[in-house]
Amino acid sequence: MLLKAKLPPLPTFIKCGNATFASGKSHFGRTFHLFDMLFVTKGTIYMKEENQEYEIKAGEYLILAPGLYHKGYKGCEEESAFYWAHFSFPNSYRLEEEGEINWAAIFLKTNTHVTPDIFELCLPRYKRMEHPEQVIALFEKLLAAERSSDLTERMKQQSYFFDILVYLQKSAIELPSRSQEIAHSCMTYIHAHFHRDDFQVRDMAKELLFHPDHLTRAMKKATGLTPLQYLHQVRFRHAKQLLEKGVLDLTTIAIATGFKDVSYFARLFKEKEGMTPGQYRRIPTYEREK
Predict the structure, then answer these.
(1) First to last CA, the chain
(2) pLDDT tens digits for 176-197?
(3) Domain 177-288 belongs to what topology?
(4) Which residues form the HTH araC/xylS-type domain (predicted)?
């Protein structure tokens, strides 16, 4: 099962702790109104959610969903220890069957000057971690903040918990190293040629000795963007830098960023940033840096 939710807003951390069950002890039964994450560090915890049974061994985690009855279906066979964390989502979430997880499914929409990047958090609800010591370190950091009397540290609990979720998601994404290398070659090529108004993916593919479809798949896996989407991202980032300097006219900026038609450039800029190039240029520097 997968847990999915659009971000932002971020999940809300409620409380965390750690516990040790003696041999023979089991988790009590309840229908909880929050998500309950269990990460086992020693032994095995036997949990049942509705009709599904889970043996959560050391190095594995389980995310129990709100509204579903869960309990320990048998006692531990040895002393078992685990971290737990309660959290919720300000907006909706979805529980779905297993499917492929990659960056193409996670990165939904590029930000503008007035709207944020949109992502989809996508977590397996039950998984074994390859590097459990890293998860332990993240939980210890969260737990230290939970127990701290320093209000500054306690305020950081939300970000510390989100670090855990991001790490779990990243660990679930299988990104072949070859795809990463191909995507890096694409990005390097785009940064070197984005100013050309005759930029074509097929020319890049010919230069890099790959089929265009192969490049597109590699870029989607690595960045969540197609080569053309990444090209526009680079072009508009450069355009904004030139606009901020306030020296060049719009026609010159359009040409310098790969657009031979200034009207087309202005229309795309407004679609992406929510304002015209002229409006962006007039924004005070301190406003742009917020």
Answers:
(1) 39
(2) 567 778 988 999 999 999 999 9
(3) Arc Repressor Mutant, subunit A (1.10.10)
(4) 184-283
